[in-house]
C-alpha cells in the first residue's frame, strides 16, 4: 500500500475541548493532514462533530479509543464508528476484541494495541505477565494478523522486529515520539524519535506534546515533515 508522505505524521489532538482542537488544526494549516482524536476529547463532548469537521476539511482521522469490552459491545461500537468518517480505529490486542471489531469495520482500518508505550517490564511484572515486552508485542501482532486487523500500535523499539516478520501485512503506527533530548522526561517509557521510528520500519508516527507544547506548533510540525521527507523522498 502506498502511503502519502505528508500523511505519515499523525498529530494527536489531546486537548480538553473540541474548540481547542479545532484551533490547533487551524494553526497547523498545511503542516499536518492526519489527526488523532482520543479519549480526552471523547469525554469532552463534540467528538463526532469534530471528526465530521476534520473529514470535511479533507483531513484523515484516527479514532484512538482503544476499545476493550465484551465482543458484542465492541462489535456494535465499531459499527457506529465505521460510518463516522474516521480512517483508523484502535482496539486492544485481545483476540475476541479484535475479531469483533474486524467483523464490523467496513472501510475502517483496525489497529490493535500491543503494549502501551508508557509500559515497560516493571508494568508487565505488576500484571503478573511472564513475557518480555518484545514477546508480548510480537504475540499480539501475530494475533492481529490472524484476526484480520490492518495494523498495530507499537513503540519504535519494536517496529524493526514487526516489519521483519510481517512486512506489508501489518501497518505499524508508533506513538511516544520524543526528541532525543527530551527522553525520559514524561510518562513515555519506550520512546524514540521520528527518524528512529521510520528507519526501524514504522509506517506512521503519532506526535502530541512535542507539537502541541512547542512555542510554534506549526514550525514543529513542519520540522517533522522535513525529517519525513528526508527518509521518504518523493
- Could you state the CATH homologous superfamily? Aldolase class I
Structural class by SSE content: alpha/beta
Report the biggest beta sheet as strand number plus sense, adding barrel if it closes: 8 strands, parallel, barrel
CATH architecture: Alpha-Beta Barrel
Write down the Rg: 17 Å
| Order of strands in the sheet with most strands | 1-2-3-4-5-6-7-8
Order of helices and strands: EHEHHEHEHEHHEHEHEHH
Number of strands: 8
- Indicate the mean pLDDT: 90
Number of domains: 1
| Estimated helix fraction | 40-55%
Strand content: 15-25%
Query: How is the CATH topology named?
Result: TIM Barrel
Taking pLDDT < 50 over at least 5 consecutive residues as the criterion, the unreliable ranges are: none
Report the principal-axis shape. globular
Offer a few descriptive terms:
234 residues, alpha/beta, TIM Barrel, 8-stranded parallel β-barrel, globular
Describe the protein:
The protein has helices spanning 18-28, 39-42, 47-56, 71-82, 95-103, 121-126, 133-147, 159-166, 194-199, 209-212, 217-231; strands spanning 9-12, 34-38, 60-67, 88-92, 109-113, 151-153, 171-174, 204-207. It is built from eleven helices and eight strands. The chain has 234 residues and is of the alpha/beta class. The model has no long low-confidence stretch (mean pLDDT 90).
Amino acid at each position: 500500500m502506498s502511503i502519502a508522505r505528508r500523511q505519515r505524521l499523525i498529530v494527536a489532538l489531546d486537548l480538553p475541548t473540541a474548540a481547542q482542537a479545532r484551533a490547533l488544526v487551524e494553526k497547523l494549516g498545511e503542516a499536518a493532514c492526519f489527526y488523532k482524536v482520543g479519549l480526552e476529547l471523547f469525554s469532552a463532548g463534540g467528538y463526532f462533530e469534530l471528526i465530521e469537521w476534520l473529514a470535511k476539511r479533507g483531513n484523515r482521522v484516527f479514532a484512538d479509543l482503544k476499545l476493550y469490552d465484551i465482543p458484542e459491545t465492541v462489535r456494535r461500537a465499531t459499527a457506529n464508528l465505521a460510518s463516522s468518517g474516521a480512517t483508523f480505529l484502535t482496539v486492544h490486542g485481545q483476540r475476541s476484541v479484535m475479531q469483533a471489531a474486524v467483523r464490523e469495520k467496513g472501510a475502517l482500518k483496525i489497529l490493535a494495541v500491543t503494549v502501551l508505550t508508557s509500559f515497560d517490564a516493571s508494568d508487565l511484572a505488576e500484571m503478573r505477565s511472564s513475557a518480555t515486552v518484545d514477546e508480548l508485542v510480537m504475540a499480539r501482532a501475530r494475533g492481529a494478523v490472524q484476526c484480520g486487523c490492518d495494523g498495530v500500535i507499537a513503540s519504535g523499539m519494536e517496529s524493526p522486529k514487526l516489519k521483519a516478520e510481517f512486512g506489508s501485512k501489518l501497518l505499524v503506527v508508533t506513538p511516544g515520539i520524543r526528541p532525543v533530548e527530551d527522553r525520559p522526561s514524561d510518562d513515555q517509557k519506550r520512546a524514540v524519535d521520528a527518524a528512529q521510528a521510520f528507519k526501524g520500519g514504522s509506517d506512521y508516527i503519532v506526535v502530541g506534546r512535542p507539537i502541541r507544547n512547542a512555542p510554534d506548533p506549526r514550525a514543529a510540525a513542519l520540522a517533522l515533515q522535513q525529517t519525513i521527507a528526508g527518509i521518504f523522498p518523493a
